[in-house]
Write a structure and sequence with these properties.
170 residues, mainly beta, 2 domains, 6-stranded antiparallel β-sheet, 4-stranded antiparallel β-sheet, elongated
Length: 170
């Protein structure tokens, strides 16, 4: 079975998000949504001293909080669940939607990748770790004894490449 990957289109979440504010060990102000499953995809942070380098071009973003107030952060950065966990101890690392395809071969037709000889494909985006696809591909490399191709898509973009090792590089 083959699967042709059409151009990636950023998907906007149209739900009204409600955030929780957390102060990390670094003194940074973190916010993450509490009313959706995919919390790990929408984490923002503003750390003391970040004013030398502003996220979102220095714009002030407004985050409606679960207590009914609104938090305004100037120049926060979109962050990730691993950094959030390290600074706050709150573990939402397995709250990312990803769509994964793993195949034995891959081709290209000038505009699109074509995953050939598919050995795994998600029926729909699946909630889990952001690196879920890479972890699965590594298991196939171990099982099959040869490289595999991985296509992984999330709300932040996609990647398509070869996995030819049996462990992650640390």
């Amino acid at each position: 079975m083959d699967y042709t990957i059409e151009g990636y289109q950023i998907k906007r979440d149209k739900r009204e998000l409600i955030y929780r504010k957390v102060i990390g060990k670094s003194g940074g102000t973190w916010v993450y949504p509490v009313n959706v499953e995919n919390k790990g995809e929408m984490i923002h942070c503003r750390r003391p001293g970040d004013f030398k380098s502003n996220g979102y071009g220095g714009s002030t973003l407004k985050f409606p909080l679960e207590d009914g107030t609104e938090l305004e952060l100037q120049g926060p950065w979109h962050s990730n669940s691993e950094s959030f966990y390290e600074d706050t101890g709150i573990d939402i690392r397995d709250t990312h939607y990803t769509f994964v395809i793993i195949s034995k071969n891959r081709d290209y037709d000038m505009y699109r990748w074509i995953m050939k000889d598919i050995i795994y494909i998600d029926e729909k985006p699946t909630l889990g770790k952001f690196e879920r696809g890479e972890d699965m591909a590594i298991e196939f490399v171990k099982k099959l004894g040869h490289p595999v191709y991985l296509y992984a898509e999330s709300s932040g973009g996609s990647r398509c490449g070869i996995i030819n090792k049996e462990t992650k590089e640390e």
